[in-house]
Amino acid sequence: MTAAPKLIRVLLADNHTLVRAGLRALLQNIEGIQVIAEAGDGREALGLIAEHQPDVVLMDIAMPEMNGLEAAAHVVKEFPQVRVIMLSMHANEEYVLQALRIGAMGYLLKDAGISELEVAIRAICQGETYLSPAVSKHVVANYLQRVSDESSSLTQLTSRQREILQLIAEGRSTKEIAELLYISVKTVETHRMQLMKRLDIHDVAGLVRYAIRMGLVISDS
């Protein structure tokens, strides 16, 4: 008599309650997969991952305070046994490449159906990489060609600098950033100056445009 397949425990991370509810409803119909927790942003997701130790995290890219790409980078580093699938509305090449660079094992578009969702989860649990078919083949080809190239300007920033860059791009004041990250206003100002110097960007508007281009935040336009 063969043993029953191991239950795949999934954590959902998306700042839209309705999206999480929809994903949960889909996953409830798949045998052997169980949603064990939900998070509304990247910081909350990291805390719940530490608490619940899921097998898979479905991580939205565009979340406030700490976006999904930054959170996924922490997951890969701190919880290497946890597999991450990035969720996005965009088949944007830069987003896909960033997701692959940081160690995410899947990239799934939010309009995926239940069968694709199941295939993606089971594939990464077997150590495979899964990309939505809508993500064009040239994205993968470009990644394979560039993977050994010099790191992008974004990956040369420290984790703290990327956090501050995202918060600046979200319109947070220096004081708000300091309170959120439990650091001094002077430290935030120092990080901002270092960001501008390293990226060769000389105003906050330029930092915002860079953050949008790199996928740290999503433009409303």
Main beta sheet, described? 6 strands, parallel
* CATH class annotation of the largest domain: Alpha Beta
CATH fold group of the largest domain: Rossmann fold
Kindly report the average pLDDT value: 87
Structural class category: alpha/beta
Describe the structure.
The chain is globular, with a radius of gyration of 18 Å. Helix 2 (42-52) packs parallel to helix 3. The chain has helices at residues 17-28, 42-52, 68-78, 93-102, 114-125, 137-146, 159-169, 174-181, 185-199, 204-213, and strands spanning 8-13, 33-39, 56-60, 83-88, 106-109, 130-131. The model has no long low-confidence stretch (mean pLDDT 87). It starts with 7 loop residues before the first strand and ends in an 8-residue tail after the last helix. It is built from ten helices and six strands, in the order E-H-E-H-E-H-E-H-E-H-E-H-H-H-H-H. A six-stranded parallel β-sheet has the order 2-1-3-4-5-6, sandwiched between helices. It has two domains: 8-146, 3-Layer(aba) Sandwich (Rossmann fold), CATH 3.40.50.2300; 159-213, Arc Repressor Mutant, subunit A (Orthogonal Bundle). By secondary structure, the protein is α/β, with parallel strands linked by helices.
Q: Helices, strands, pairings?
A:
Layout: E1 8-13, H1 17-28, E2 33-39, H2 42-52, E3 56-60, H3 68-78, E4 83-88, H4 93-102, E5 106-109, H5 114-125, E6 130-131, H6 137-146, H7 159-169, H8 174-181, H9 185-199, H10 204-213
Parallel strand pairs: 1-2, 1-3, 3-4, 4-5, 5-6
Helix pairs in contact: 2-3, 3-4, 4-6, 7-9, 7-10, 8-9
